[in-house]
Amino acid sequence: MGLLRVGFGVCLSLAFFTAKASVSEGQQALRTTAMNTSVAIEQRIEAIKQLYPEQWKNKALSKRRICIWDIAGRSGPIFTAAQDQKTELMNLGIQVDMEAYTSESILAEELKAGRCDAAFMTGMKARTFNKFSGTIDSVGALPTIKHMKLLLRVLTNPKMASKFETERYTILGIAPAGAAYIFVNDRKINSLTKAAGKRIAVLDYDSTQAKMVLKLGATPVPSSLVGAPNKFNNGAVDVLPAPLVAYSFMELYRGMEPDGGIINYPFSQASMQMVALKDKFPTEVAQLIREGFQKGFDRIINQLNLQTGEIPEHWWIEIPDKEKQDYEVMMQQARIELRDADYYDAGMLTIQRKVRCKLDRARFECPNPVE
User: pTM for the full model?
Assistant: First the structure.
């Protein structure tokens, strides 16, 4: 959004001290109004305009280039859904030019180089820009969509704004991408212990995933987000972690035929996140955009359900309740290990644990929390 801090050019002499104080107080009042969710949106926008007058020309901000990752490019579901957000941004007075990228790695490099003012990417990739928001996708942290919805409502509180900012980047919004499951080409691989000796797809830019797979006694196969489903369908990997929406969009039933399936236990809630250059989107504007994402939660879930469609019953692989409990303990241990390795953010893990216990106080972890 190309917004710069307003320079006041006030001399540091005693003669101007009183004037400086009054300007500072007025600026703080405007910031308070802009970040107050109980104030009308029009009033908040007006406060932002007064905070950054040099950047607001003809009642609109300068055009910003937002890059969208979508495997299918401009015709894909992610880019299509992003058009709704484009409308929201324009309602805030932000002129937007959206560009589709089929390679998430190239998109990330374009953002780093400043050729994108903001970029919409997976939560896993966003972790390389902001560890706090990137931990949302942590393994086993959010058992259901209901947990995700509550978490995003908590994170939209203006008091959390600083958590989304680093020295150079800010997180403009977080959208649910649906539950992620384990797809296998053999129904006998219905537990982690039975994954030993199997080939498991891992992200090529994330060495930690490979290390976790090696601990299972399995073979990690580095892949891109586009390449991993293709490898599964071609039989190059036996196990593929993926959002459920990929079943039809990436035709994962091809890789499951004839004896495979989907383990009926979500191991995470995936997210899509918009990462932006901080100097283009100041705190107050970023807050409004995050709120817009949160308000669109139900609409996005409905779109995901339509895109996923009905998955035939015979693909689901049920596991015993006792084994599900073992999975929960194992995933908690994995989160703690990754937290201690500085991969996951401890603060986010604590918030997620509070969300889980808020919705189910009987969980084993609630009486004596370790996250």
Answer: 0.88
